[in-house]
Amino acid sequence: MSRVQAARRAFLSRATLLAAFTWLPTRLIAASPPRIVAVRAWPAEEYTRVTLEASAALEHEAFLLENPLRLVIDLKGVVVQTILRALAEHIAPDDPYIAAVRVGQFTPETTRIVFDLKQAVVPQIFLLDPIDPYQYRLVIDLYPEKPQDPVARLLAELDKRQRTESDTPVLSETPPRRPAETQANRATNPRKPQPKPPEQDAPYVIVLDPGHGGEDPGAIGRHGTREKDVVLAVARRAKKRFDDDPKTRAVLTRSGDYFIALGERVNRARRAQADLFVSIHADAFVRPDVAGSSVYALSDRGASSTAAKWLAQKENQSDLIGGVQLAARSDHVAATLLDLSITATRTDSLRLAQAVLAELARVSPPHRPEVETANFAVLRNPDVPSVLVELAFISNPTEERRLKSADYQEQLAEAIYRGVKRYLERHAPRPRALMLAAKSRDPAS
């Protein structure tokens, strides 16, 4: 039985018990009931997230029902409120998992929310403590019963396209050899070279990581521009450039407006057999006059500047803002505390950062002329050269206006592409896919 199936069975077992016994509150209800202050929904092919934000922690019970498929959530000590009733309006018609939502007063002390489902799901429901800019949040994540791997799907699509483009017509018959053919003839009339096996043409895999997403908007400019939107737009433009180049292909860690945990971003790079990892951001600073692009590499010896340290601490809070279940987050911390003493990887990360910074400097003056270092969680990948790019400071009104421009986004995407290409041409070994293929064929490996 898979982990997902076990989780679903546990949910159904809980539903049976709850149907047989009267529910008991796990703690006393506060004198004043929690007030729902906001409801949000983030639909995506990978999973749908629904968030209920409240003035106090929401005591809840949840269970699944079948025939038809439904997820029921009871909020204890909560009365139906206008904001909560509006939850149905936040569900998109094309949501992959939710067909409709109903909200009602089940008992005088219990509000019931019923999600009509389009397919079997595995819910993950958890509470988050307040963190700026949010109050208490109840997070409802609906994952498919058969988990999807967007990285594998994207790579399969690119592989299929590559094979289609590289295929050559195959003759049904081999022309007979001429009787008078000699070794000299063959030397002066060499045969047409045969197509290389597909693996010999394997491209470099570049994983582009648009920061933030979903509940985590990232930095917000004075005129309301959200970092998560800008970096996704630039990443998509950069992906097109890499995919148009036969020697590279790009994979996005997220393709829409939804949240991906920091550890999962690193895991996706590893599953994609990434040759390089580029995390894309457009952050803010306390002073609006600070401007310019920056490129960072990982450091385990402290940050290269006070600003770099402040920025890394801010970016590393992404899991808390975006919303990650505590158990999953602790597993991520344990998994990413790896041996980061691999000198070659750190050296390659610095070389990649220098190449990208040099190209960004051709678009606009950089914030600092040299690569900076800091302990970014998303760069903790010991065997893949990784950098974090700050496109500009969204807190600077002039740069905020530029970041919203399609033309400026194109220039930034082109700079990232050129920087990566410069690094690959000067320093990169064979694509990782080729090295792994060679290793798998080696009987001694």
Automatic annotation (TrEMBL):
It comes from the Bacteria. Residues 266-421 form the MurNAc-LAA domain. It is an enzyme of class 3 (hydrolase). The keyword Metal-binding does not apply. One of its GO terms (molecular function) is N-acetylmuramoyl-L-alanine amidase activity. It catalyses: Hydrolyzes the link between N-acetylmuramoyl residues and L-amino acid residues in certain cell-wall glycopeptides. GO terms for cellular component: outer membrane-bounded periplasmic space. Its EC number is 3.5.1.28. Keywords: Cell wall biogenesis/degradation, Hydrolase, Periplasm, Signal. GO terms for biological process: cell wall organization; peptidoglycan catabolic process. Residues 162-204 are annotated as: Disordered. It is found in: Periplasm. InterPro entries: AMIN_dom, MurNAc-LAA_cat, N-acetylmuramoyl_amidase_3. The keyword Heme does not apply. Belongs to the N-acetylmuramoyl-L-alanine amidase 3 family. PANTHER family: N-ACETYLMURAMOYL-L-ALANINE AMIDASE (PTHR30404), N-ACETYLMURAMOYL-L-ALANINE AMIDASE AMIC (PTHR30404:SF0). This is N-acetylmuramoyl-L-alanine amidase AmiC. It comes from Hydrogenophilus thermoluteolus. The lineage of its organism: Bacteria, Pseudomonadati, Pseudomonadota, Hydrogenophilia, Hydrogenophilales.
